[in-house]
Amino acid sequence: MLQESSGWLIFFSIWLLYIAVSFIQQRLVFTEDVIYNTFGEQLAYDRIEQLLETRKEWEWVGYAIIPIFIFFQVFFTAACLNIGYLLGEHRSQKIGFRRFFSISIKSSIVYPLYSVAMLLVCLLFLNVEHMEDYSDADFFSIAGLLHLSRSEEWWVMPLRAINIFELFFCLGLAAGVSRAMNRPFRSALAFVALSYGVGFLLWMLFVTFLQLSLSA
Amino acid sequence: MKARQIITLLLLLSIIGLLSWQISEKAGQKAQRAKERAQLPDFTLSTLGGENLNTNLIVGKDQSIFIFFDPDCSICAYEAENAHRYVEKYAKTTSVVWVGAGRRSKVEKFAKKYRLDTLAKHFVLIDSSGQFAKKFGVRGVPEILIYNHKGDLVKQFHGETTWEGMLKYLD
Fold first, then answer.
1. A192: which of A174, A177, B19, B49 lies 20 to 30 Å off by Cα?
2. What is the pLDDT of residue B4?
3. What's the distance, CA A32 to chain centroid?
4. Which residues, other chains included, contact A115 with Cβ-Cβ below 8 Å and sequence gap of 6+?
């Protein structure tokens, strides 16, 4: 019971962190000036004003749907681990989906830290004039390190997904799995790589395929 | 390894292989299309009068703006309305080719409503087969492409764009 409540506490903390980052981002990074600079070439002044009004009006919807994304991500990770467990050979300990779900929620705390880190880099070291400049704050992913953040979208998304926080997430999962399955950390890490790692790869390939198919 | 594990492994490898192959095919096609439209491609579309016209012949040595539109799109209507306001700034050196998607009757109605035929060097063509949309990597409407007088693609805009924004890319 205590474990369950701490899981949900982490879930709400993740949500709150995302809300805080988004709230600060809207006010200090993507300011009205940045929006005018970004869309000034394409949209007329009154259309940009309309856009800003709409952004203000619908801001809360953005915050409200965040838990859906967190839930999906946590569920997906737990499902990958559970499938890996069911297909694996070492089933001495009986572990259910709930346990994997709990491990996944706890490890997910590192995801909003990626947004926090980017926001901090942006506020402390960058001068954002256009919305695209925000991608320059990404020092944590392959896309950022190889300066590919402004290449084609379908290429950037998977390269951004491979980042230092994803690595921490996998380490967190491995620590949880190691404790739950009573296996050495290395063996748990191998289990995470073969279960969640494969699921993650499939998801990346699927989303990239979808992006390429939908864009001309 | 148990049979169940071997089957799963084979299944996963097939899915990963299939998706990777599809991604590489699609990325190749995308790059090829981008390369093709970097220079104004030679292609023929039907005019409102029903004749087939080659766009290279229409444009000639002018710089050109291609506006792909849908007659039912309100932003496209906004672009058409504003074409009149700025016509003096670009008409001497620029041809504007409006390429309408959908039914001929609707495209005709649109051209008439916004008096596109009264504007100098404005042409209205119909892309009934979708060949323009495919060739030019159209993502939505309006899609705007600006070519210089040598036929090099200078700028491609996806979605609403002001005429001031377009004029920046003209000589």
1. B19
2. 81
3. 26
4. A17, A18, A21
CB contacts, 8 Å: B137 with chain A: 216
The neighbour count for residue A92, using CB atoms within 10 Å, is: 8
Q: Which amino acid appears at position B50 of this protein?
A: G
**Site from B1, B6, B18, B19 to mutate, A interface, most A CB atoms within 10 angstroms:** B19
- Asked if B32 and B42 count as a contact pair (C-beta separation under 8 A), the reply is no
Beta bridge partners of B95: B64
Q: How far apart are CA A147 and CA A151, in angstroms?
A: 9
Cα(A42)–Cα(A11) distance, rounded to whole angstroms? Answer: 39
B1-10 residue pLDDT tens: 678 888 988 9
A45 contact B CB<8A: no
Q: Which residues in chain B have their CB less than 8 angstroms from residue A154's CB? A: 27
Quote the pLDDT of residue A1.
Answer: 45
Distance CA A130, CA A33 (A): 9
How close is the nearest chain B Cα to the Cα of A158, in Å? 12
DSSP letter at B57 equals H
Q: Which residue has the tokens 């190691």?
A: A178
A90–B contact, CB cutoff 8 A = no
pLDDT tens digits along A75-125? 999 999 999 998 887 666 788 999 999 999 999 999 999 999 999 999 999
pLDDT given at position A87 = 87
ipTM score of complex? 0.80
List CB contacts of A118: < 8 A, sequence separation 6 or more.
A134, A137, A138, A140
Closest-approach residue (CA) in chain A for B168: A41
- Spans in chain A with pLDDT lower than 70: 1-5, 90-92, 216
